[in-house]
Structures are given as structure tokens and as C-alpha cells.
Amino acid sequence: MRAKVPFEFYTSSQLVEITGRRAIDLKEFVSVMKEIEESSIFYHIHHAFREHHFAPGEYSNDYAHWVGEELGENALAEKLTNINIKDFSDLGALRKKLVEIVEAHLQANPGNGEVQAKHKFYFCKNIGVVQSTKYIAWDLEEFCAGLKKVGLRSLFFHFFEARLRLGRKSNDFSDWIKDNFGDETLARRIEALDPYIYTMDQLRDKIIALIGGEKETLLAKVFKWLKVK
Amino acid sequence: MAQSKISEYAKIIRPQNFDEIMMLAERVKGKRVKMVNATAVGGGVAEILTRVVPLFNELGVKTKWDVIKGSGPFFGVTKTFHNALHGAPVEITPEMYKIFNEATEANLAEMTFDDDVVIIHDPQPAGLIAAREKSKAKWVWRCHIDTSHPQPDVWTFLKGFVGRYDASIFSTPWFARDLPIPQYFIYPAIDPLAEKNRELSAHEIDAVLRKYQLDRSRPLITQISRFDHLKDPVGVIEAYRLVKKTINCQLVLAGGGASDDPEGTQVLNRVQEAAAGDPDIHILLLPPFADLEINALQRASTVVLQKSLREGFGLTVTEALWKAKPVVASAVGGITLQVIHNFTGMLVHSIEGAAYQIRYLINNPQIAKKLGEYGREHVREKFLITRKLRNYLLLFIALDNPGKDVIQL
User: Fold this and answer.
1) Does chain A have fewer CB atoms within 10 Å around its N or its C terminus?
2) Are residues A112 and A159 in the same domain?
């Protein structure tokens, strides 16, 4: 089946800018978190995931890493690591949740707000440079082939950046499948993947496997129909 | 060693990442860039420019590299400034500022800046920003040194220049200062095709081990660094002695020459005293350009140690990680960006901690192997010269799009 509109694979590279904002304890941390640009939240929440794509680490984001390793606040670090970014479709809501988690922790442990970290947290942000790759897909087969060929930055762009930074409601893959093939089930299954517990390579394989599985199911339906006939 | 071609890196990084670098280069093709630093040979900046400049040209970015001229007194002053920026308590006199400014004026009279981007490396040529009014270029100050605790007088003097640039680059976020211009961070990087890092044959490694009379059948612990008390070589020997109680191992402490450095000679003497009487401690005073030897020693090691008390970035750690070696290193400076504890290596805070982790890794080779593999992948993604090229290309694009968080090409 041919799509009405082809899927064009984009990729996004990041240049990191140092904002000059920093925090030595949780009180300062919360105060900066309330004001810092959204591109900083986007950077720190995905930095570890994006850079350590060869294996999932102990912490899913930079905030959890700092809180755990530099402040020794293990319970808070676990709460920050466990945050499901897919529950948020904009960075403002994600910021609010992160602040709420730390403030609730400080309310329960009032003495911990001014405990100094071994090293400060340096708030950075990223400048995303988005460009088209040479790959486009007119059907699901071409789509899987393209997904195998593009870099992990492209996967990151369409699966994470599009949703959280560019304000789209779902990932680009699910949107394209739903809009062009009307396959809401497959779109939902891809959207339901929990990307933060996989490496980027594993996530790519999962998406390809879901699409492959869907194609097999369609084939099975055709065979069944032919058999009945 | 001959300069490597850009296409050779396609075999080292993911092909998709290589393609993306080529795509970014296509967007800035034809841009004229000038790099300026203080020395053509010797030192890390010259080393990286030697590798990077030809690669940029091959990518279509017309890159020139100029070196400023200076007298003996000028370089004496800039060395003092360098130490002061590192936080050393040195005396700064008005005469020093005068010598610095005069040398800057002399260089300005001889240099032209008809480029699109000018990248000035480190403090020595920072004053060239005075040429900005007559140039259409974007000016970038690239700081390679740790300026996290500078002596205020020298920093105030330097800030007068740096604040007039379009942007600055630092090696880690904590080296950055309060400046009125954008500050980007670009990690230092190693070249995987350089003599110090290229793949070696077993024959080449064996030849080096034979040369230094090392026994390949027993575990080898290695620290590569100059003989400087901040690298804690005596602490390394103490850690080794703790390990030696249960494991019949060898230690290599290898570093550059110290004959022209009185402090280095003192440290070397202390190290030799501490090692006296143990034939399994090998103190190797390597000549300059002993890159093949360093490469072979790192590759032959069972565990690579970096027990620094303070560290800038720690490129010797990067080199060891790239060779997939299990690394035990102090949690100081830029080492913490490279070694993620129990993931890409082991971070320690004491002699005892170092000894424990060395024993643990020698006795658990599967875990050591996994750490080494993750360490290599970590370097492949973040600390290779290809990442540096990508970041510079992004910088050129960002300079043309000031104030934008997302740039759609």
C-alpha cells in the first residue's frame, strides 16, 4: 500500500550551550529549574539517554545522576529516574512535574535543601540543527529500510524531539502510519513503546519488529480469507 | 605519521554518523575559517590543529592556521598568565600587561582577517579581537584551559578581550565563566588514527613489552602521565603494593621526560625511592614522541589507572577507554565526564579504593571486559575527533543563526 504523503526522514544534531546557571544544593536547583529555558530541560532529560545509547545506565537523566551521585539523595534520584517522559507532551508540564517531585522531597526532608553537593549542577541547553536526510519512504517496507539506514539522531528526532520540543501529540512514525494507512492499531502500538528502558538500537529494532509483525498479521488475514473462499 | 583522510573515519564511527557529518559540511562548504594559536608544534592545541585543519579543508571548509609571533618575554608573560588562570598564586606586574599588549599590537600589524570565522585559541592571541572592527568575520574564543578558579586580576584583564567576541568555547561546563557572550562546550578529543591510538598488531605490542622487560603472563597495571605530584605517582605505588599482597602483578609508571623541569625531577626521584627494591615496578621515562610505546603499554595493560589528585580533562583516560581497557580513575576534573562509575570504568577517591577496584577487576575479567566495551563506545560517541568536527560545523551554523534554539536547514 502506497502512502498519500511519503515519510521524509530528518535528523537533528545538537550543539551544547552553557547557560551560566548553576546549583550547589536542592534549594538552588529548584529555584533555577523554575526559570531556566525549556531547551535546558530538554537537554538534561535526554542527554544520558542520547549519549549512552549503547546500554541503559543507572540514571535515565542528568538530574537524577546529580542528585544520586553528588548529593547522595538516592530515593529522590530514583523518583527522578522513574519519571515517564512519555506522559508529557510539552516541556512546561515536564518542568512542573520535576519541580513538584523535588519540592515534595524537600517538604518531607526539610533539612536536605541546603546540603551542598560535591560538585555543582551546571545547567546547559542545546541548539538543535535539523536537516533532511536523503531517505524517504512511500510504504512500510521502505519505511523499515529507511529506519535501518538513518542514524540514531534521526530516530531520536522523530520519536522524542518531535513530541516534546516541537509540540506534536505523538511520535512522527505513528502519525504518518495513522494518517496514510489508517492503521490505528499499529500507530498505537508504536506510541505505546516505553523508549526509556531501551537503548536507541533496541528501540529501532522494536519499531521494525512491530511493523513486521503487523505485516505478517495482514498476510495471515489474506490467507485466511483465501482459504474460506 | 601521514595525515588521515576523512573517509578513513567512516570505518571507525557509525556510518550514519559519518554521513551526517558530511551533510553538515555540505551546508557550510566554502566558508573561510582561520585558526590562530601560539605555537605550531608541541602542546595539545597544536597537536589537535595539526589533525583537524586538513580534515576541515577536505570537507570543503577553507581553513587556514596562523601562529602568532612573540618574544621570549612575551611567552614568559603568557606562561605566567596561564598559571594564574589555573589559580596559581603568581605575581602579576603592570609591566607584564604592557609586554602582552605590545606583542598583540605587533601581531595585529602583520595579520589579516578577511575570513568568515576566526577562532582564537587560548589566552596568548586573545587580544587580536582588536581587529574585529575592520573584519566581517564572526570571532570565537576557544579556551582549552581550566579557568574555573582564575586569579581575578588576570581574568579581569582577559575578560576585557573575551567579552568582545561573538562566542566562546570551553572544554567542560565548569571551566566556563560569567561572560556576556554565548558559551558553548565542546569536549577535547583524541584521534583514533593517530600513532598513539591506532590499532596495533600483537607483534608490535610484544616488541614494546620485550623492550621494557615486561612479563605478558602476569597482570599489568599501568599509569601513563608525566611525573607530577598532581598525578600522585607515589599513591599509585602504594595502591599497587596493596594489590600485590594477593595478586602477583606488575606496575608500569610511564611518562615524559623531566630533565628541564626541576619539580618533575624531584617527583621522579621520590617515585624511584618509593619503588626501590621491587623489580616488578617499572618506571619508564619516555622520550618525546613515544606514541607507539604509550599505545602498546596501554593495550597490554590488564587495568589502566589514573590516580590524579587534580585533572583538567584527562586525555590519557580517553586513550585507555578507547582501547577498551578497564579504567580505575580518581573522581576529579574531566575524568568524571568520561568514567561513569561501574558503567564505563571505576571511580575512586583514595589509594585503598583504587587498590580494591584493581583487585576486583583483575579477579572479574568478564566485568572488566564489559566496562572496557562500554568505555570504548562512550569514547566513540563523544570524545573522538569526528565529534569535534561535527561540533565545529554546528558552531559555524549557530553563528549564522544567533538566538535560535532550533535551526531548520
Assistant:
1) C
2) no
Nearest CB to B185: which of A18, A69, A153? A18
**Domain shared by A173 and A98, yes or no:** no
Q: What is the DSSP code (8-state) at residue A160? A: I
How close B17 comes to chain A (CA, Å)?
Answer: 6
Q: Any idea of the CA torsion for A47, A158, A55, B339, to the nearest 10 degrees? A: -20
Domain boundary among the residues A81, A100, A125 is at: A125
Sheet holding B220-224, edge to edge: B281-286, B250-256, B220-224, B303-306, B327-330, B346-348
pLDDT at A177 over 90: yes
What integer pLDDT is reported at residue A218 of this predicted model? 56
Residues of chain A whose beta carbon is less than 8 angstroms from a beta carbon of chain B are: 11, 13-18, 20, 37, 39, 51-55, 57-58, 69, 119-120, 122, 124-133, 149-154, 165-166
Which residues span the domain enclosing A28?
Answer: 12-125
In this complex, do A129 and B24 lie within 8 Å of one another by their Cβ atoms? yes
Per-residue model confidence as pLDDT tens digits over B103-149: 999 999 999 999 999 999 999 999 999 999 999 999 999 998 888 88
pTM: 0.88
- Looking at the fold, whether A105 and A64 belong to one and the same domain comes out as yes
CA distance, residue A225 to nearest chain B CA (Å): 42
- pLDDT > 70? residue B262: no
Shortest Cα–Cα distance, B304 to chain A (Å): 22
Domain limit, last residue, from A93, A125, A157: A125
Q: Could you tell me if A16 and A119 lie in one domain? A: yes
Is A104 inside any structural domain?
yes
C-alpha pair distances (Å), A30 with each of A38, A47, A96, B213: 14, 19, 10, 57
pLDDT tens digits for B148-179?
A: 889 999 999 999 999 999 999 998 888 888 89
**Which residues in chain B are closer than 8 Å to A128, comparing Cβ atoms?**
405-407
Q: Are residues A115 and A181 in the same domain?
A: no
Q: What count of Cα atoms within 13 Å lies in the side-chain half-sphere of residue B97?
A: 12
Rg of chain A on CA atoms, in Å: 21
| Number of domains chain A is built from | 2
CA distances for B391 relative to A109, B80, B292, angstroms:
42, 31, 29
Whether residue A161 is contained in a domain is answered as yes
To the nearest whole Å, the CA of A218 is away from the closest chain B CA by: 32
Q: Is residue A3 part of a domain?
A: no
Q: Is pLDDT at B230 greater than 90 in this prediction?
A: no
Average pLDDT of chain A is 88
